[in-house]
Amino acid sequence: MPHSELPAAQAQPESLSDLFWSFTRLALQGFGGVLAIVQRELVDKKKWLTREEFVEDWAVAQILPGPNVVNLSLMIGDRFFGLRGALTALAGMLTFPLLIVLALAALFAGVADSPHIQGALRGMGAVAAGLIAGTGLKLIAALKQNPMGAPVCYALAAITFIAIALLRIPLAWVLLVIGGSACAWTYRQLGALHQIKPTP
User: Per-residue b/e over 49-69, b at no fewer than 16 CB within 10 Å?
Assistant: First the structure.
């Protein structure tokens, strides 16, 4: 959506510079539990997206190739400023984190075999998992507005969890079968809603 067509009531970046530094700050906070950080920054603080918009955009970002948050930054940048915004948001996501990762990689090479370092990384992994789970529970409320209906959404979420966490089915198959079924059902529901909508 072009910058000029955005609803007046919706918050948006003030400039390309604001977009760049906002995504830079977001990227520098995203240690492991990036989903929680992204949701808090873009929905709760900046209000660039509603909770429902965030759920929809994050779903699209997940099925595209590449890191989810990078895909999301491109989508949001493009929505507000077109191609310039997409490239600016991408630069914000990657520039400083890349420099930090290169520096940490050089430092980590000398201590990678240390049991203390390995234990610390496992501990951070547990915290990241908790952040993701907590954010997922927080976003459940947004499913009430989904055209599939909340019961269907909850059932699909449970099936997806079982398929990935318990049955260890490859992600590609989960996206193809469960994701494809969800898309087909949503298309059917939207068609039904359109048919029953009264004409003015």
Answer: bebbbbbebbeebeeeeeebb
76/149 Cα distance (integer angstroms): 26
Count CA within 13 A, CB hemisphere, residue 184.
7
Report the candidate in 133, 121, 135, 139 with the shortest Cα–Cα distance to residue 31: 121
Inter-residue contact 69 to 30 (CB < 8 Å) = yes
Note if the pTM is more than 0.90: no
- Residue 19 and residue 41: Cα distance in Å, rounded? 12
Mind listing the pLDDT tens digit for each residue in 136-151?
777 777 777 777 888 8
Integer Cα distance of 48 and 74 in angstroms: 14
Rg (C-alpha) for the chain, rounded Å, is 19
